[in-house]
Amino acid sequence: MGPRHAPIPLLPSVDVPIRRELQQLYDELDKELSALGAACTACGDCCRFTAFGHELWLTSLELTVLLDAAGPPGPASDGTCPFQSEGRCTARDGRALGCRIFHCRLDPSAMERLHETFMERLRELHARHDLDMTWGEFLSSLSALR
Ligand code: SF4
Ligand code: SF4
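^ inputs. structure came back:
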């Protein structure tokens, strides 16, 4: 299934090898970002989605792994990610590809290249494990789960 603005579901379970592969993909992305000198002052602005004019999209697999790592979210007030606390991310270990790639000071073309490369790898991971690649918007998916 393709992208949709409607809420995406959680997966009933995620096997350990799949979790490891996803974590490896995230780790490699983080390394590439670091090599590019992507700097973040952790001001938290880009996680205040509505105010920033930004959306986070992710797959059911990413959403399931994020919630497993971070625990249940509180309410999302004012279109801010409910995992943001005092400007900081409380879901760092499980945060999604989109959380990791976006850097406000990174050259947009470098961000686009990383996005294409790592989305393709995410697609391959889903296909290899026969997972539905449903991709949807984060806040609406969290609201539907409450
Ligand atoms: S990427 Fe930019 S806007 Fe987002 S938290 Fe870091 S410094 Fe703030
Ligand atoms: S999970 Fe963390 S990095 Fe991702 S949007 Fe929420 S606060 Fe920001």
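The first strand starts at residue 3 and ends at 4. The chain has one domain: 3-145.
thumbs up if we can close this ticket
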